[in-house]
């Protein structure tokens, strides 16, 4: 902007009024310099004088010429020759304001609505501005209540400015509800431009927010298509849930294409929202067949004919349409009858052969060389009856029109006549006869000779093509036939309706990222025009697609559904009943991209600081920035003297980027007005309205000036964030805090209340606890030591409402441990930018945070997260409706994220089980573990000389070794790796653990080999039968025919014929702890072997003192406490059924003495010890027992199975080899327990046990109570 002068400055050049004379002075200086040059030459004095006179004359003539041509003498300020006048119009009508302005230089004209500049680009299709030959006009299309306003037209040139005013009042045709209280209506969650296909179902819906909500009052919900009110039908279903309005199109047809409008009417007014719906043709049943016709209607109906009309389809799929077939169906049936045998090219056809009084529906099909199209949507039912009878049934008079002629169809020529009934009161019973006459003759022929017609309308068929006819009508009643009417003018049958000419120049204009505005010149030769079809094509693709499937009547259309960034060309053709015109010439190529325009004017100019010769101004950003970022602002000022403003002067030549600027070189105690222009890449916008008049005098107040540049971010249903800039004028002391005030938008001034009770040092504040959908305004005050200063300008009202599709900033830690903040916006445009800030200050240092933006997503990546990164991070998306969000990174949150980052940088594969070992068949050793989750690319590292198996479905990893060798002793480790994730598990096998495992492995290996032939499934065991026989048995597997079983005893094979009794050993005697035992061993013992014990040749009678038994292969006889009576000969007799055997032994003499000595000399505890001793604490305990045995036994005392020794507390004595005493001098609770005495000598060991229980007297007394 600094390199060139903006174009608007050319209208405000502050040149001196004599700047033309300055050019003349330049000429004089040139001539004077030339005269001084020639003075140095060798001229004569006479020639010098002549030249001087000639020069002065030329200078005088030159000056007179510029004096006559000076524009100052022609300039004059603007003047309204014709001022705009006020209008009152109905809703949906158009209004045009125009004026004529004179002035030199030509004035620049700007239109305002309620002092706000009107920008046609900001509201496409709403406003149209024209300026031709000093006549300026403003056209407002489809007026609604919002267009009721005061309009101002301002004319301005370098000589001055002048304005004229006019009012527009828009009245509604709808019933208005009396205003009891103000209700606000907001339509949100809106349906957008929609695309459907024939046969599909489409729903359009909007959420409607009305506040305050009145439960007993429901708004009026209406739906319109192309400004026509829709009613519920089988095609249209409407629903209102209380907060959402829905329109469902049950079966789409091309007739449903158009601009749909939702109108919500409350007692305080109404709110509307509109969007276009496009309906594409369904796939053809026959490849290459044309699209279906549309908008089938009944143009005229009588008792014997109905004239059907329709509109041609937009596409023919590459083959011209040959004609159309019309089908009819009688209401109440499903039988369709084709009405014409050959296709008709004209989009109008009279259907005859109808039954009077019956109702019919119609449909139309198109045909080309490829085949027949799908049928159109069925028309509304219409009855074949006389119009007079129809009117009479409705209770209305017959509709009368003048003569109407319908043109030739492809098969028949016809004319439809209509007339006015005769005047008079007696019209009952009046009927009509129609007569025709060929032009040039006087021969009148009655057409309806048999039955007169009742209605004043009649169709004549079978007329001669090319001839001219005149027609007249006679009335008749019961009195007779009246005089004929005046004949009509000659009408030639066969005049064809011509196909319209091609439209003129097509001009495309950028609109949005997916749409283009296409305008064109109307067809010059077009009768009964139905509308236009528009087609678009990507450059060089040679593929044309229809932009609309229903003809549009205007010469301007917005083509939606285009591809962003592609370059398109467009063409248009017109259509009427005769057919489609030729295509227009292709338009210039246009790129599909959002249009840009110069921004609207800023507003809200205020003073932030004032000194003797300068003032600091602030203003608010324009409401419309033109689709491109604002690059700067230009400020103008003018002095106001006695209420009369002077000329505007430029305050800055170069654009300023901030919305605050110091205007210097002012005069103290003078009054000034200011205006501001905004600039973007499209140019400099129109200036704002002049500000209030400010006095330039130095501020001396002690408190601060007002904060400025208030901005609202992150609007949600219960909160928002308010930002501001500190005041320029700080007062006597620096600013040390700010206060934020809030109130409802509709509340009075007394409703202002503070948000923060304690001043905040920050220039931002999050306002919470808002009421959803409520409108709020805010202001900010600064304070210093002197007090609280001026309030800032009030913000624009903002509703506390979370907009649909609003996203929040999400924190993410990726697989590499990188921490990032992510924000997604669904409303981005091609020019949108994601602006990240920390603590609401834009970040410029990329060393700590890197921003990556792709499409509608932006990511802020932390480089090395640390404590210096703690703060509030926010993201604002430009060129949207305030899309923004924030994320607070606290110290705790940073710590949590760093832990997650570390886990992601150094991930660990989780294990379900650690490394374990088990033995398999054949003695093989299996090492295994199970991972919780591993991907298909995971690998396992183990011992290279062994094969590793990895089941990726179950996560089981195993290594199998055939056997263990001493070299395998050590630590086994499995290492797992899955991408970056790792883990390992180890198992230590050394020492006894390894040896035991190796031993078991070898055993299992041998067992496996053993079981390859005959092997024992159950090893040898025995079973005692009821006959007291012992049965040896085992279970052998893998037996074959040639397998044999061999029995052995002590290594000697047992033959099958060997006697069991012969396997016994001699009978022997031994002593036991309780007496004497006689015993023998047998090699084999079973139930067949019978054993009998004898004493002195008599069988022994067994008792508790004398018992016998078998232990393994030992047969024994036990005599407890033997006496001399037990001396004698003992024998054992065997009998196995094959033979018997007797073994004997003599218990007498020295053998008996030795046994008796053994028994008498064994150590014994003879008695004297009680089982339990209960004694009071502090008492003395003394126990004595008798000990016997020879040699004298060793005595040992035990307490709780632990040996005790004698001491002062516990005295242990063994006297005379016979008496053992146990004495405790003063027992205590610690002496309670189990005591034992153990006696032992070479003949045996014996013990005696007793228990000591010590009680406290108090406890004992309590128990008794």
UniProtKB/TrEMBL annotation:
Residues 16-26 have a biased composition (Basic and acidic residues). GO terms for cellular component: M band; myosin filament. Residues 12-52 are annotated as: Disordered. One of its GO terms (molecular function) is structural molecule activity. PROSITE patterns: FN3 (PS50853), IG_LIKE (PS50835). Residues 78-169, 198-278, 799-890, 1175-1253 form the Ig-like domain. This is Myomesin 1b. The lineage of its organism: Eukaryota, Metazoa, Chordata, Craniata, Vertebrata.
């Amino acid at each position: 902007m600094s390199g060139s002068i903006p174009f608007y400055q050319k209208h405000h050049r502050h040149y001196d009024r004599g700047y033309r004379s300055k050019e003349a002075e330049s000429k004089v200086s040139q001539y004077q310099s030339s005269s001084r040059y020639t003075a140095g030459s060798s001229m004569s004095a006479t020639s010098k004088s002549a030249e001087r006179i000639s020069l002065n004359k030329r200078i005088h003539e030159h000056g007179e010429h510029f004096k006559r041509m000076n524009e100052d003498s022609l300039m004059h300020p603007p003047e309204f020759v014709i001022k705009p006048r006020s209008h009152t119009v109905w809703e949906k009508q158009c209004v045009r304001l125009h004026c004529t302005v004179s002035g030199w230089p030509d004035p620049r004209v700007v239109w305002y609505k309620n002092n706000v500049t009107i920008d046609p680009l900001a509201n496409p299709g709403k406003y149209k501005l024209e300026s031709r030959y000093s006549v300026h006009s403003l056209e407002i299309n489809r007026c609604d209540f919002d267009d009721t306003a005061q309009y101002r037209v301002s004319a301005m040139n370098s000589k001055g400015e002048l304005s004229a005013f006019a009012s527009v009042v828009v009245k509604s045709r709808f019933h208005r509800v009396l205003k009891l209280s103000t209700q606000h209506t907001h339509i949100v969650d809106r349906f957008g431009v929609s695309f459907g296909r024939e046969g599909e179902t489409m729903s359009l819906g909007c959420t409607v927010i009305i506040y305050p909500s009145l439960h007993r009052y429901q708004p009026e919900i209406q739906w319109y298509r192309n400004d026509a009110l829709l009613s519920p039908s089988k095609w249209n279903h409407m629903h209102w849930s209380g907060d959402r309005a829905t329109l469902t199109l049950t079966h789409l047809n091309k007739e449903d294409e158009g601009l749909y409008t939702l109108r919500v009417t409350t007692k305080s007014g109404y709110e509307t929202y509109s969007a276009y719906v496009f309906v594409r043709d369904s796939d053809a049943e026959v490849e290459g067949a044309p699209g279906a016709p549309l908008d089938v209607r009944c143009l005229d109906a009588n008792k014997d004919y109905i004239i059907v009309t329709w509109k041609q389809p937009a596409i023919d799929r590459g083959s011209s349409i040959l004609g159309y077939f019309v089908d009819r169906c009688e209401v109440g049936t499903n039988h369709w009858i084709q009405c014409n045998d050959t296709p008709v090219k004209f989009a109008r056809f009279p259907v005859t052969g109808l039954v009077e009084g019956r109702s019919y529906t119609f449909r139309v099909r198109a045909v080309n060389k490829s085949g027949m199209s799908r049928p159109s949507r069925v028309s509304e039912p219409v009855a074949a009856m006389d119009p007079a009878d129809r009117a009479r049934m409705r209770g209305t008079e017959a509709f009368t029109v003048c003569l109407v002629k319908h043109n030739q169809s492809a098969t028949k020529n016809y004319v439809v006549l209509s007339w006015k009934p005769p005047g008079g009161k007696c019209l009952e019973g009046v009927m009509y006869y129609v007569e025709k006459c060929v032009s040039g003759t006087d021969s009148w022929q009655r057409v309806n000779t048999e039955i007169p017609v009742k209605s004043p309308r009649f169709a004549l068929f079978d007329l001669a093509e090319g001839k001219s006819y005149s027609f007249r009508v006679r009335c008749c009643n019961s009195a007779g036939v009246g005089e004929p009417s005046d004949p009509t003018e000659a009408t030639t049958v066969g005049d064809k309706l011509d196909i319209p000419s091609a439209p003129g120049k097509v001009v495309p204009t950028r609109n949005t990222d997916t749409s283009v505005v296409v305008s064109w010149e109307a067809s010059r030769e077009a009768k009964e025009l139905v509308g236009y079809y528009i087609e678009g094509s990507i450059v060089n693709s040679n593929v044309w697609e229809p932009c609309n499937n229903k003809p549009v009547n205007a010469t301007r259309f917005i083509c939606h559904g285009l591809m962003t960034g592609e370059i398109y060309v467009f063409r248009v053709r017109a259509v009427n009943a005769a057919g489609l015109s030729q295509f227009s010439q292709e338009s210039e190529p246009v790129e599909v991209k959002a249009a840009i325009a110069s921004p609207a004017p800023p507003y809200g100019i205020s003073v932030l600081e004032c000194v003797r010769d300068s003032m600091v101004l602030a203003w608010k950003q324009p409401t419309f920035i033109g689709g491109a970022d604002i690059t700067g602002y230009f400020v103008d000022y003018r002095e106001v003297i006695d209420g009369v403003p002077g000329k505007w002067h430029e305050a800055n030549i170069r654009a300023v980027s901030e919305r605050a600027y110091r205007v210097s070189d002012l005069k103290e105690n003078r009054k000034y007005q200011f205006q501001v222009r905004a600039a973007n890449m499209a140019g400099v916008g129109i200036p704002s309205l002049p500000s209030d008049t400010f006095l330039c005098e130095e501020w001396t107040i002690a408190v601060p000036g007002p904060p400025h540049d208030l901005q609202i971010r992150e609007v949600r249903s219960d909160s928002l964030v308010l930002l501001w800039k500190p005041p320029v004028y700080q007062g006597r002391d620096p600013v040390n805090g700010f206060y934020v005030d809030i109130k409802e938008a509709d509340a009075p001034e007394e409703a202002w209340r503070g948000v923060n009770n304690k001043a905040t040092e920050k220039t931002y504040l999050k306002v919470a606890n808002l009421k959803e959908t409520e409108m709020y305004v805010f202001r900010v005050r600064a304070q210093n030591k002197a007090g609280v200063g001026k309030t800032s300008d009030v913000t624009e009202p903002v509703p506390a409402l979370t907009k649909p599709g609003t996203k929040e900033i999400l924190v993410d830690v990726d697989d590499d441990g990188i921490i990032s903040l992510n924000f997604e916006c669904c409303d981005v445009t091609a020019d949108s930018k994601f602006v990240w800030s920390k603590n609401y200050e834009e970040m410029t240092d990329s060393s700590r945070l890197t921003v990556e933006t792709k499409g509608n997503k932006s990511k802020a990546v932390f480089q090395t997260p640390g404590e210096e990164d703690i703060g509030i991070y926010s993201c604002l998306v430009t060129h949207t409706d305030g899309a923004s969000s924030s994320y607070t990174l606290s110290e705790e949150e940073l710590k949590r994220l760093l832990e997650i980052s570390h886990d992601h940088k150094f991930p660990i594969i989780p294990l379900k089980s650690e490394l374990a070992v088990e033995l398999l068949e054949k003695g093989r050793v299996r090492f295994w573990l199970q991972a919780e989750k591993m991907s298909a690319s995971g690998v396992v590292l183990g011992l290279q000389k062994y094969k590793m198996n990895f089941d990726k479905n179950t996560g089981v990893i195993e290594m199998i070794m055939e056997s263990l060798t001493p070299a395998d002793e050590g630590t086994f480790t499995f290492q797992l790796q899955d991408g970056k994730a790792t883990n390992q598990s180890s198992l230590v096998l050394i020492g006894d653990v390894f040896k035991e495992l190796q031993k078991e492995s070898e055993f299992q290996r041998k067992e496996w080999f053993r079981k390859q032939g005959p092997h024992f499934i159950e090893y040898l065991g025995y079973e005692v039968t009821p006959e007291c026989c012992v049965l040896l048995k085992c279970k052998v597997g893998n037996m074959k025919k040639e397998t044999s079983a061999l029995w052995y005893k002590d290594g000697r094979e047992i033959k099958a014929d060997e006697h069991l009794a012969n396997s016994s050993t001699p009978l022997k005697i031994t002593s036991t702890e309780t007496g004497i035992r006689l015993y023998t061993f047998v090699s084999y013992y079973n139930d067949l072997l019978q054993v009998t014990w004898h004493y002195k040749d008599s069988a022994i009678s067994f008792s508790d003192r004398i018992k016998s038994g078998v232990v393994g292969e030992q047969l024994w006889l036990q005599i407890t406490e033997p006496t001399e009576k037990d001396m004698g000969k003992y024998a054992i007799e065997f009998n196995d059924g094959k033979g018997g055997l007797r073994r004997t032994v003599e218990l007498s003499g020295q053998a008996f003495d030795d046994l008796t000595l053994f028994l008498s000399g064994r150590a014994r505890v003879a008695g004297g010890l009680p089982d339990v001793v209960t004694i009071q604490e502090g008492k003395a305990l003394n126990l004595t027992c008798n000990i016997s045995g020879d040699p004298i036994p060793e005595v040992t005392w035990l307490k709780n199975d632990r040996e005790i020794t004698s001491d002062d507390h516990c005295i242990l004595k063994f006297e005379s080899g016979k008496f053992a005493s146990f004495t405790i001098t003063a027992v205590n609770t610690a002496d309670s327990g189990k005591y034992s005495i153990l006696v032992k000598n070479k003949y045996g060991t014996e013990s005696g046990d007793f228990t000591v229980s010590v009680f406290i007297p108090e406890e004992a007394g309590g128990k008794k109570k």
